[in-house]
Amino acid sequence: MKIPYNKPFLIGKETKYIKEAIKLGKISGNGTFTKKCQNFFQETFGFKKCLLTTSCTDALEMCALLCNLEHGDEVIVPSYTFVSTALAFVREGVNIIFADSYDNNPNIDADKIESLITEKTKVLVIVHYAGSACEMNKIMQIVEKHNLILIEDCAQAFDSYYDKKPLGSFGHLAVFSFHETKNIISGEGGLLVINDDNFIKRAEILWEKGTNRADFSRKLVSKYEWIDTGSSFLPSEIIAAFLYAQLENYQKIQKKRISIWFEYFKQLQALCRNNKISLGCQIDKATTNGHIFYIICKSNDERQKLIDYLKSFDILAVSHYLSLANSPFAKKHLKNKTNHLENADKFENTLLRLPIYYELKISQVREICNHIKDFYKV
Ligand SMILES: *Cc1c(COP(=O)(O)O)cnc(C)c1O
Q: Which residue's C-alpha comes closest to atom 8 of ligand 1?
């Protein structure tokens, strides 16, 4: 493929830092580079406490454990999202309640959340789709009024803001991903952000296989013991070393991706004005971090024709999520009280993501847009 949808890249000292980690004599987890990465997030975005994880999915599983849920509790999750957002909670024996998107934005429709809340609702999980913020003013009001735990799935939302406040700092807990398809990458990798003090101590224990190893290294206890549930949630120093090299250059990466995003936006404005496609709407006060650039086609059929047309020029554009409420797993295993989620269904059928990656050239963005304009013949 001449222009793939995504392409992993090296930005600077990735391989140098991996060698350094080996020379330091420790490549298991929670070493020098893990701490550097965690400190980066605490200092750059003001998150209270950060723990590096092997994936965003793992960080979500830690969230599910931290919420101390009981059988029959309800967790509200958007239907238009990646499997992991819901999956992490399924094993806790809770009911997943799917929420719909706005009609002009794939994010959770904040005006529809309250109708889903019952006395069993404990947790609200939100996803900042394409790295663009949900309607946080309304969401924070709902969370306070109903005393819910708020979890932000920021897998796509690195270095993005709502009302100048970084995404990942609103929730009691938040999670990030460094999967190779995200803005900042380490192959696989994730981060748990803990903004509420009450969760910190237990998070450290879950992270270290249910032991009080954190207290042991602080010399607060004389030996470390098995005291809770947990897993091996921490990544190796090799992953952390790679990730730190990317974080050091995050501004360069963000600048490039955002410039690609705005070039698409500029080039495709006319098609949007002529009502051939839609570009979706951002929530007021939300920034773009250049994670995804998508267009919304008129129908599934038209989208498929455009995908095939671009493929004939060796360009890969891709659809995105299948609405989770319609999934075979949800139908078989979840007591799904929610009806037909028409906006999630619409995005399932019509949303198309255009290539975006660090090494994509602005001239290539123009080339892609010219093909799209030809397709719609304007
Ligand atoms: C990528 C993604 C995840 C999963 O991230 P991993 O690091 O691959 O586990 C979860 N939620 C959303 C919204 C994502 O985009």
A: 179
Q: Which tokens sit at 4?
A: 């793939």
If we measure between CA atoms, which residue out of 123, 131, 118 comes closest to residue 92? 123
Q: Which of 373, 308, 10 is nearest to 180 (CA)?
A: 10
CA distance 127 to 133: 8
Q: Which regions of the chain are under pLDDT 70?
A: 336-339, 378
What ranges in 25-131 are assigned the alpha helix state H?
32-45, 56-66, 83-90
- To the question of pTM greater than 0.90 for the whole model, the response is yes
- Ligand 1, closest atom to CA 58? 9
Give residue-wise pLDDT tens across range 318-357: 999 999 999 999 988 887 656 679 999 999 999 999 999 9
Element (H, E) at 298: none
Please list every protein residue whose CB sits less than 6 Å from any atom of ligand 1.
55-57, 81-82, 84-85, 127, 153, 155-156, 177, 179, 190
* CA 109 – ligand 1 centroid, Å: 20
Among 115, 113, 72, CA closest to 95: 72
